[in-house]
Amino acid sequence: MVNNKHIATFILGALAGLAAGKYTSMSDEEKEKMMNNLKEKANKLKDDATASAEQAKDYFSELATKGMDSLKEHFPGAEKWMQDLFGNKKTDTAATDTGAAADKATDATS
């Protein structure tokens, strides 16, 4: 059974064959011009990707700052609530362990 992957593979193979045939029939000057054009396009693509990554980084940084400011504005206790929720778990477990030890000591003396 022939599916879309087989058709796509066949088309890509045919295009690669045509491109290789065209490349071998080019003069040295045309080959050099084409390679320079490809390098230029690749560098432009790289520059665009780098700029987009920087914009995304700035966007998410700004979103985090503005998001927390907005949350504080609409929910005044948000910062304390977030600190309680995501705060230092080590301190919380240490306090719980100390409380459990105190409970055991009280039970032992009773």
UniProtKB/TrEMBL annotation:
Taxonomic superkingdom: Bacteria
Protein name: YtxH domain-containing protein
Organism: Niabella pedocola
Coiled coil stretches, renumbered: 28-55
Record keywords, A-Z: Coiled coil
